[in-house]
Design a protein that fits this description.
- By secondary structure, this protein is of the alpha/beta class.
- Strands 1, 2, 3, 4, 5, 6, 7, 8, 9, 10 and 11 form an eleven-stranded mixed sheet that branches.
- Helix 9 runs antiparallel to helix 10 and helix 10 packs antiparallel against helix 11.
- The two termini are 34 Å apart.
Amino acid sequence: MSAQVVIRCYAYNHERYIKDALDGFVSQKTTFPFVAVVIDDHSSDKTAQIIREYENKYPDIIKGVYLQENHYQKGLSKDKYLEPFEKEAKYVAFCEGDDYWSDPTKLQRQWDALESDPTLSICVHKVRRVSKDKEDLGASFPNKNRFDKETRFTLDFLIQEEFLLGRWTFQTSSFFVRSHIPARKAELCKTIFKNYPYGDLPILLTSLIEGDGCYIPKDMSCYRVLSGGYMSAMRSNLDMALLHGQKKIEAAKDLKEFFKGRFDKEFNVHIKRVRYKSYNDIAKHRSKHYWLDPKYLYSRIGWLFLRIYGRLNAKVKREMRVNLTPCCEIDN
């Protein structure tokens, strides 16, 4: 029987971390067949060697793809390597090579949630933040236990959270979507997502354009902070951070045009917040006494104003789910 769930995993120089990701995949206990397609983006360390070892040990689960050039640096899509595996799948899950799954029931719980309700396009869950060495940092996505029960959420709610309030709500290692979502996202990457500097939010937005989302309040994966990935690199590279900010602004303008005024308030606030972040980054790279820099003071005052404005204007609420199947209930 063909795999019903395909896990997308991208790895690049993740020698220190990839075993945790692979162990999380092979430990999953499900009633359906699944595979993990692990794409090594031409790593210069032993990442590919480790993937091959797991592929030999778990040939029915781990499917390695070993690229001969770095596709990320050249802006090349990796979708064509995933299409043969996803052709007959019902769902697609995601996990970067430096993050990992911590619960062997993760896939089954998310499968059951989407199987129970055809109006849902995506299921996510709580994700813990950990250090490079897997130490719990006491934080999570979503932050501060803001969701304590199974929750249904909409496109309006996500745009409010991400763009009006500036919250990073859900993390990629929790994404579980219907199999047509990646192809639909690829189509939208030609228009509204063509300027997006990363791929997780476009997956969420695409899913919620197509249907609603479901959140399970159980931490079942871990996001590794400062592991040397894209977000980590921006903290030390001003030019990269400024380019990232400009791309986010252009992406917000594309989204404004696509939604034809529906979320103009949210996107306008987001654009201002990104500009304040750029002023903040410039000040911090200029001097160790950055708090005396007028750009820094301006950015902090502006950021505070936007935070107050966002909270005063936040109106969209999430809805508590009442129709999850019993097997999706969270154990105490």
